[in-house]
Amino acid sequence: MPKPQQASERVAVVGASMTQFGQREGWIMDLLAEAGIECLEDAGVDASDVEHLYVSNMASGEFEGMTGVPNALVHDLDAMPAYTQRVDQTSSSGGAGIYAAWQSIASGASDMTLLVGGEKMSHRSTPKTTDIIASVTHPVEYKTGVTLPSFAGLTARHYLERFDAPRESLGKVAVKNHKNGVDNPHAQFQKEVDLETILESPIVADPLRLYDFCPITDGSAALMFCPESVAKEYTDEYVIIAGVDGATDTHVVHEREDPTVMGGVVESGKGAYEMSGYGPDDIDVAELHDMFTILEFLQMEGLGFAEQGEAWKLIEEGYTERDTGELPVNTSGGLKSKGHPLGASGIAQGVEIYEQLIGEAGPRQVDADIGLACNVGGFGNCVITTIMEAAQ
Amino acid sequence: MPKPQQASERVAVVGASMTQFGQREGWIMDLLAEAGIECLEDAGVDASDVEHLYVSNMASGEFEGMTGVPNALVHDLDAMPAYTQRVDQTSSSGGAGIYAAWQSIASGASDMTLLVGGEKMSHRSTPKTTDIIASVTHPVEYKTGVTLPSFAGLTARHYLERFDAPRESLGKVAVKNHKNGVDNPHAQFQKEVDLETILESPIVADPLRLYDFCPITDGSAALMFCPESVAKEYTDEYVIIAGVDGATDTHVVHEREDPTVMGGVVESGKGAYEMSGYGPDDIDVAELHDMFTILEFLQMEGLGFAEQGEAWKLIEEGYTERDTGELPVNTSGGLKSKGHPLGASGIAQGVEIYEQLIGEAGPRQVDADIGLACNVGGFGNCVITTIMEAAQ
Description:
In chain A, 38% of the residues lie in helices and 18% in strands. Chain A has helices at residues 28-43, 60-64, 69-76, 93-106, 126-134, 139-142, 148-162, 167-181, 195-199, 228-234, 263-276, 293-302, 311-317, 334-338, 342-357, and strands at residues 11-18, 52-56, 83-88, 113-119, 203-205, 208-209, 219-227, 239-248, 285-287, 370-377, 382-390. In chain A, the strands form 2 sheets. Chain A has a 9-stranded mixed beta sheet, sandwiched between helices. In chain A, strands 5-6 form a two-stranded antiparallel ribbon. In chain A, β10 and β11 form a beta hairpin.
């Protein structure tokens, strides 16, 4: 759906932060507070000036037996009486938080909205964590024992066979994103991985192997939103949310007509492009949701960066390389090397685009005025696409 | 915080529904779908015209091991590619959903937003359910074994002693709300309870007894939101969201200066009054969050319907009676007799006010043009107040 912006002025991002991603001590509340405090400092905003505080988190109750986390965070940041709520859209909770924060500003409900997202997962066993995540699937599929990695394996096999793509092309997504992650001090894995290691790693869901998957991660990230007129009071270096939209696809994955097309990616991308007035060719840098390597291809295609069945050629050509490619993808390291703390990931994508657009991405810096982030919930069950541009 | 409405036009409610509340068969998804379908029919809106679909739910993962419920609901209602997310604000998730839906329309992000909320709780044991709800408390209080009923007992004792209020006045809240619930075909308890029964029921948290508490409930409720110009295309009988605001108080309850003042009630009420231009004297009917009888008094006072320490006199005077009082409170039966399925309750409050304002409350009908709903999260940790008015 096109989303014409009715609000009288544009929504700006004036601060960003993320914690170290990886295996972390502490509760979810500690991680959220860490990112929240750092974002307040980065934006130069007093906690008492925050009017809304949204928390992106999928499953603090399931992982830690703790609910009401947004209320606790407002208290811990001394931001009372700021209004707060939890935004849950499974693994796209962060992107959903961006959309919610945008709405809070664009509607006039808030003039300063702090968005903090995070997840604490690594203290649970891998089977337990996988089961909590698998609980997003439809009961008719969940009861068969299917998990998100199973969907990924089935889709990857179909893609490789149908489009005559080499298995190596998927591995090259992991090579690229790990290489980018080396320069991200917050990434869970700051080390390169070569193609041979990837192709010889243990099979998880054939044809996908261990290195085709993102890790289990603890971490938090934050962004600060306000109307553009307010942003100008704080800084000259801010970013505008030029377009944002979210869309669903069938919740029962096997009902989709074409398993290589993620309808939520296509529809949310369309909405974000339409709202912003930009198209795929205008995007200078993108963060895509590479929870599994195959997903980077499906988003490249769904967002119009490649024709259907041809994204694999672009990775082979180096089109998405950070320093030499036409469209650098996942300069942050992506979920693959940065890690994937569910509620934080979509926000961390936004943090990377924000830093790229204001020129603070350090050794990861590319030349970019317009960036895109695509955050995928479940196996494309709901997707949020955000387009940001540097302030003029 | 005052929330001036920047949007070019007002936000309308054009449809409402609620399921039978009580012990229900089926999953949360079944309950949500039931209310969602009925709300689409009530509003005369096609599922394909829904642009955003928000789901208010606190704990489907904890109660049922099921997440991603909003995505499943969009699928089951055949509303793809409508954007969806879960709104969690503990026991005020429904009120938070109203605020989120308002923001989605006022920001221009959506021209038709379906809000559905619900909870499925009764299949779990009372200790387990109480523990899931108690997980909203701050860890420093949770670890002492405190639960929401404990807070209620402590506060009630303090209130009765400090303001020299008779124990009977609390019982009369239950008598009134049960009496109102008799005429609500969706209420969990459709039967009167006399004062003697209440005062002799088992002690739960001294001085509060069994009948001072709302029950554990399954159920769902829904509301349909759109811009006023769109509402006119569907119906002449719609309601306007005149004011809405949310606010937090300390998450650690024992840090509050005055345990009889709920800061979240006061602040959210102030914001909603300011946005609407109305004050306490303008309100014709109110739904207050009577999870515990004492809460009705605290909200009466926090919202300016009574002076501090004097709400108990109003119940003694019959001021809040449905058919004879100046300000009918909880005409629906309140959480006390209608039941309290966490994610549904705030929306069900909105359903009651909507029906009162368009004159469809049947035997519960009062004379009202302006109504207020106050939805309390945790023990006042976050509160959302909404003021609705009948369309002119």
